[in-house]
Amino acid sequence: MLFRRVLSLVFALGLALTSAGAVLARETAPHLTLLVSMDGFRADYLDRGVTPNLKVLADDGARGSMRPSFPSLTYPNHYTLVTGKRPDRNGVVGNEMEDVVIGGPKFVMNGPTANDPRWWNQAKPFWVSAEQQGKKSAAMFWPGSETAIDGVRPSHWMKYQHDLPYDARIDQVLAWVDSADGPPLAFATLYFDAADTEGHHYGPDSPELTAALVELDRCIGRLVEGLKARGRFETTDLIIVADHGMAPLPAAHRVVLDDLIDVSKIHLVAKGAVTSFSPLPGQAKAVEAAFLKSAPPHMTCWKKGRIPARFHYGRNRRVPAIVCLSETGWYTTTLEARKKPGKWDGKDGGAHGFDPYDVRMRAVFVAHGPSFRPGVVLPVFDNVDVYPLLAKVTGVKPEKGDGSLKVIGQALR
Prior knowledge:
By secondary structure, the protein is of the alpha/beta class.
């Protein structure tokens, strides 16, 4: 009897020591904040039943729907997520834009001018603040990460390679986590584009989009297993986001700008869901008659100073004189562009860039880790709120921005 009692006490002591050791490991292992972007992953994709790894993280952490900033495009919203400032304040006002101060060729997403730091210096991204405060950062593909901003780059970064396999991206991030070169990694980004690419090509309700969701979920599983194998999962705050959602775009839903005006009278900067341009000298009356005093089909147009306040857009010098927002599911084009059809033209597909208040533009948000309470479902919030959350969980003093922890902070322990 005495032997059994002693054995029971020894077993209980062993369990206590094991538990204490696990707690000590969590407390001594370095904390990591890992921000993962799944471009074009609409908020409701999470409920389609094909992403079990993401569901486990969401159920054991927090989830919500994020409202993108205007315009609901890739570059503006990726930079909003890491600066906490809306596009009109962070300077990345579109995937294509011009600046009278910079001059020269216009900025085009993934184009040769995109890494000129002057395009990015109106706001400081999170990795720059982290580095300046002694916290090591890494960026596996994120708009702005390929150039020195405020004279600073992430400690680790890579030039964007669209064809780099997803497993290689994950393994590189894990290798950066493993690195013993200098202080431990405190913040890192990771980027996947499958949901956006297949959503554009085939639409948000296509089998091809479903296959993309399955692949992305597999990648999340690989990432989690990699962190667990290194003993880092328990000390990693994993924040999974998207830049925007996706809406169906029928092939016939095109407004040809040449049908509305002689396009030689305007300086066109961007077309698509958001069309932006300025009248050429002497053409203001004709342009205003076509776009402001009449009702152009399937779009609403404003002078830049009269864009509705809810869009928080129109004061930046990079916003052209007139901005038109297409009705969800419609795009603008030109006769010249139709002579050179793009990869998504001529067939039904999908698009974004539309009104951020449209539910189809909402982006996914999942947060899991030691900083987050389990089982939290957040109300809809603006994506500018992600930045103060990053600052809170990483211990970085934030720049003053447009977001707050009022809603998203409900996810925190």
